[in-house]
Amino acid sequence: MTLTQRTLRLFVYVLVIVTGAAICAALAMRQTQQHVLSEEARRASDRLALYANTLHTLIERYRALPAVLALDTEIRNAVRAPLGEQAQASLNRKLESINGAAHSSSLELMDRHGVAVGASNWRNPKSYVGNNYGFRPYFLQARAKGTGRFYAVGVTTGIPGYFLSNAVLDDDGEFMGAMVVKLEFPTLEREWAQDDDLLMASDAKGIVFLANRTDWRYRELQSISVEDRADLLSTRQYDKKPLSPLRSRVLQRFGPGSHLSRVEAPEGSAEYLWQSQAMPDESWTLHLLRKPVSVNEDIRNAGLAAASLWLMLVFLGLFLSQRWRMARLRERSRNELERLVEERTRDLRTAQEGLVQSTKLAALGQMSAALAHEINQPLTAQRMQLATLRLLLDQGRIEDACQALALLDQQLTRMAALTGHLKTFARKSPDGLRERLDLANVVDQALLLLDTRLREEQVECVLHLARPAWVRGDAIRLEQVLINLLRNALDALRGQPHKRLEVRIEARDDQWQLSVIDSGTGIAAEHLPCLFDPFFTTKPVGDGLGLGLAVSYAIIHSLGGQLTARNGDDGAVFSFSLANDFLESEP
Fold first, then answer.
1. Residue 327 lies in a domain
2. Host H or E run for residue 11
3. Considering the domain boundaries, does residue 107 fall inside one?
4. Nearest to residue 356, comparing CAs of 264, 426, 276, 278?
5. Domain end point (choices 290, 320, 340)
6. 25, 136, 282, 518: which one has the fewest Cβ atoms less than 10 Å from its Cβ?
7. In a structure prediction context, what are the per-residue pLDDT tens digits for the chain, which is 587 residues long?
């Protein structure tokens, strides 16, 4: 590859890295901005719900008032026939008193033609009394449906308010007039004005009639049709109030009634988080406009973090690529090394198996002299018995000859058992053999092989064997372990005035524990930690290789057990435990 080609490739790599970092930064900045705006919109929605609930509660407090007053006898009589001066004054004072107690803005009673025959503001120069409001929707609704509601600017007082009406009926259910309560919201607007956010309420035509900032009132949020404008003129809903459009453009939507918009506000163009919530009972919509919080620093940090992460991933990829190349170069060497390790492992495993077998054969070698002596005596006796048998047969003493043959058969059977078990003990066990066996039988077979030495050395052998003691294992290997432990115990008894050997099998929880206890001198404290180490021995040179306990420990461990050593009251105690096979004992 030429220098120009390498330079071009390097340039492409750098360009890809820089471009990727820029793209990641841009995506992260956009995502962060989206997240911040969405969270702001959610908080605005929760706040708007509180405002809507407050307004709804305020209206509901007075909704039943005109209905209750419409049932009053004096009020019903006032719209049945024209009132005298005294009755008129009494009605006005009554409405004035009720209005003061209810803390409503005003109360008025209208006859069947919409003329106010009584009002709570009768003392005011702009009293409702005598004025005709029959064109107002709240009167027309009460006459048609029994109840009415309408937000409008008062044509008499010029003060906006919410009118709630209820029909006054005679005993036959005929319409006689309407009882009306007017609600004004100056206190609510003052409370809203303390908030930094912009709060507005619009009617079904999209006209803002309530806001915490005066220059935002009477704004058109949408285009008004010709029919709606005619209706505004006939009902004089916003009498003498100039209406002007509030222009806005949606920039981003977050959900129903939630969006980011650019608004041509009275103080100038600005972006607002615009949250809307409907108030279906009143056919209104409540709006909350909030200027987005400045998150430039957060957005910038998110972009830097994304770009840094991209660069880190790129450099990590380059690092891993380099490592992969180096790994490929070392692959052949590693494979060769693994092959050599496998070969050495096989050799070590073969050596270990041979070592176990050698240890077993060494034990057989040490027992061979005693066994030869044990077998030689029966052979001498058998030759004499055979000579006697010939004489008895020559003399025709058949019965005596049969008795001599019985004794000869017993001696041959014992010799066959000894030699047969020696051959079984000497052979190699199959790998991984796990059979169900009685641990007490293993003790019997091991003691059979050591019986001659026990008798010659005059050792007192005490057995406490639980029968049957069912375990899973290899009988030959367990017998090898037990012979190693018994031989070590017999070696420890040399020179002792009282030679006592005890073998115990007892249940411990869900295990069987076999213990070999001698009355020797015990184990030195400094020897206990390394007792099961290979080639460790306290015997004189030539008496052993120090592998018996190490091999025994490995055998018990492979069968899932544990071999331990400690000092007892008189001598050493070697124990191993194996899991109890809970199958029912064989008959």
1. no
2. helix 3-63
3. yes
4. 426
5. 290
6. 282
7. 666 777 887 777 777 777 777 787 666 666 665 666 667 777 777 888 888 888 888 888 898 999 999 999 899 999 988 888 888 899 999 999 999 999 899 999 999 999 999 999 999 988 999 899 999 999 999 999 999 999 999 888 888 999 999 999 998 889 999 999 999 888 787 888 777 788 899 999 999 988 888 888 899 998 889 998 999 888 898 888 888 898 888 888 887 888 888 998 777 888 888 889 999 888 899 999 888 775 555 566 666 676 677 677 777 777 787 778 888 878 877 887 878 878 876 766 665 556 555 555 555 555 554 455 445 545 655 666 676 777 777 787 777 777 767 666 655 665 565 565 555 555 555 555 678 899 998 898 888 878 878 888 889 999 999 888 999 988 878 888 898 899 888 888 888 888 899 999 999 888 999 999 998 888 888 888 888 777 667 766 545 555 678 888 888 888 889 899 999 888 899 999 999 886 544 44
Cβ-based neighbour number of residue 212 at 10 Å = 20
Residues forming beta bridges with residue 111, ordered by sequence position? 177
Q: In angstroms, rounded to a whole number, what is the distance separating the alpha carbons of residues 529 and 141?
A: 104
Task: State the Cα torsion 374-379-382-383 to the nearest 10°.
Answer: -150
279 and 132 within one domain: yes
Name which of 119, 115, 110 is nearest 142 in CA terms: 110
d(Cα 147, Cα 179) in Å, to the nearest integer? 9
Residue 225 near residue 206 (C-beta atoms within 8 A): no
Is 180 among the domain residues?
A: yes
Residue 498 phi, psi dihedral angles, 5° rounding: -120, 115
Q: Of the residues 268, 290, 312, which one is the last residue of a structural domain?
A: 290
The dihedral formed by the CA atoms of 470, 471, 475 and 480, expressed in degrees to the nearest 10: -110
How far is residue 385's CA from residue 212's CA, in Å, rounded to a whole number?
134
Contact 164, 107 (CB under 8 A): no
Strand partners, 511: 508, 579
Segments forming the whole domain that contains residue 496: 429-579
**Tokens coding 478:** 């367990």
Q: Which is it for the CA torsion 454, 455, 458, 461, positive or negative?
A: positive
Name the strand (E) or helix (H) holding 252.
Answer: strand 248-255
* Cα R_g (the chain), whole angstroms: 56
Distance between CA 193 and CA 213 in Å, rounded? 7
The reported pTM is: 0.48
Asked if the structure places residue 278 within a domain, the reply is yes
DSSP assignments along 489-509, one per residue = HHHHTTT-SS-EEEEEEEEET
**In CATH, what number is assigned to the domain containing residue 489?**
3.30.565.10
Are β-strands 268-279 and 284-290 bridged in parallel, bridged antiparallel, or unpaired? Answer: antiparallel
Task: State phi, psi for 247 to the nearest 5 degrees.
Answer: -85, 135
Round to whole Å and give the CA distance between 527 and 142: 110
Tokens of 539: 């015997």
Look at the chain and report how many structural domains it folds into.
Answer: 2
Helices of type H across 292-397: 296-394
